[in-house]
Design a protein that fits this description.
Length: about 475
């Protein structure tokens, strides 16, 4: 006998199947559970200090430690390792895995089941990892088995950071319990040679020395060339730095997590207390011979523009009110047009170079940027400049109705405004040196200077010609 399904019966059967299927499937998938508040409460058998006191060999007993991650690899300043600390100390954990911060970010509590792992040290710094290689260095915990040893717990957790002085931490052998823990050092600055420069060169891990007003050479900030802050310039001020306290044999090292660990916002110190003096007062100290400046600092706004190369890279022109002066550093500086600076000129040589007064012999770290500012140029004529040249030297002026000779900017070119003439000087390597001088009458803004008996004006960039 043939069985015939009516269209209505078929529709009802399909609808029933669809309902049953939809009851088995969810329209939205569940998100992974949030384990940030879950603590498995493993039984901890040892503090980190007790673990580090064990023989440096493979651990064959059921040792369990816990701690808070205080250093991860988020910034790239650490690679394939994390550091944890508890109230007794810290230890470095070697893991053959990248992007560890996704599982073990700074602030996460973890447990480590140490049985089967090995204790070791690297130039005096305790480590936990796998069995040593042929050279005796610990190998890394395999990334595929790391879950057998490390158990994640709550996140985030506050990390205790002790604030200490530079002298407190200068000798790592006297601070063994602080190694591999976060510390803060107060009243510190980068040494003169290491202030205002990249944290590391692009090709190598590098050390930058820290200093105080009375001490230097004992603690370095060590930064990887793979850190995402590698090209950022070290601050030129003084303040507080937070970092992981480590050692390399007898040398104390600090490793920052990122640049937010560095808070050096105060003016840096020199050799003792400094007195604020005006640029006008500094200029008046010069009487004909070289003057070694006492414990002074000056302030002002940078009126030169290093970006166009029309000043020597070690030089800048600083103006305060209606007085200015050339500063010459021992290396290439990093300050830009419009930066407001406080400069420790203690020990600087105040002297004329080819008749131009300058302070030379300054470390780049002696200058501290406090903000930005604006100097309004003095509106004048060439005749007035020539009549007041010594007083107006190294200041910003503005001259209208200026005519130019033909040719390029490069070298010495005599310009006039109807009241007199002055030499427009442009360094041959300036970015605009080979551009043609303008035609017709223009308004020019520039910095007054001199070379021997020649009175000069220099433009900073081509926007100075209007």
């Amino acid at each position: 006998m043939k069985r015939i399904f009516s269209p209505i019966l078929s529709f009802l059967l399909l609808a029933s199947m669809a309902v049953n299927l939809s009851s088995c499937l969810k329209k939205d998938f569940d998100t992974p559970p949030d384990e940030s508040s879950v603590d498995p409460h493993l039984k901890v058998t040892h503090t980190i200090a007790q673990l580090k006191s064990l023989p440096q060999t493979q651990i064959d007993s059921n040792v369990v430690i816990s701690g808070i991650v205080c250093m991860d690899d988020r910034s790239g300043n650490y690679y394939k390792k994390i550091v944890i600390q508890d109230s007794t100390g810290g230890i470095e954990v070697l893991i053959d895995q990248t992007n560890l911060y996704t599982d073990y970010p700074v602030g996460r509590k973890i447990y480590i089941k140490c049985k089967g792992l090995s204790l070791g040290s690297y130039h005096g710094l305790s480590q936990l990892g796998n069995a040593p290689d042929a050279q005796g260095s610990l190998t890394m915990i395999n990334g595929t088995t790391v879950g057998d040893y490390i158990v994640k717990a709550t996140f985030p957790n506050k990390i205790k950071v002790d604030t200490l002085s530079y002298s407190d931490l200068k000798v790592p052998g006297q601070n063994v319990n602080r190694l591999n823990t976060l510390v803060a050092i107060r009243d510190v600055q980068f040494a003169d040679a290491d202030a205002g420069v990249p944290y590391a060169p692009p090709t190598a891990t590098f050390n930058r020395s820290l200093a105080t007003c009375s001490a230097s050479g004992g603690i370095v900030v060590r930064s990887s060339n793979y850190a995402n802050f590698q090209p950022i310039l070290t601050p030129t001020g003084q303040g507080v730095i937070v970092g992981l306290y480590t050692r390399y044999d007898d040398a104390a090292q600090l490793i920052i997590r990122d640049t937010t660990d560095v808070r050096m916002y105060n003016p840096r110190c020199g050799n003792g207390a400094t007195s604020l003096i005006t640029i006008d007062s500094v200029r008046k100290l010069f009487t004909g011979g070289t003057v070694t400046l006492e414990t002074y600092k000056i302030t002002g706004v940078v009126i030169s523009d290093k970006s166009t190369g029309n000043q020597q890279p070690q030089n800048l022109v600083l103006q305060q009110g209606d007085r200015g002066i050339v500063l010459r550093f021992t290396g290439t500086h990093t300050f830009n047009l419009g930066d407001s600076l406080t400069v420790n000129v203690t020990g600087g040589a105040l002297a004329e170079y080819n008749s131009l007064l300058q302070i030379s012999g300054l470390q780049t770290g002696a200058a501290f940027k406090s903000g930005t500012g604006t100097i309004v140029p003095r509106v004048t004529t060439i005749a007035q400049i020539n009549s007041n040249f010594e007083a107006w030297e190294s200041t910003l002026v503005k001259i209208a109705n200026v005519t130019f000779p033909s040719g390029s900017y490069s070298g010495n070119k005599v310009i006039s405004d109807g009241s007199g003439s002055i030499t427009l000087y442009t360094i041959a390597t300036a970015t605009f040196a080979n551009d043609n001088l303008p035609t017709g009458t223009k308004t020019i803004t520039g910095i007054t200077g001199q070379f021997g008996t020649t009175k000069q004006i220099q433009v900073r960039n081509l926007t100075d010609i209007q």
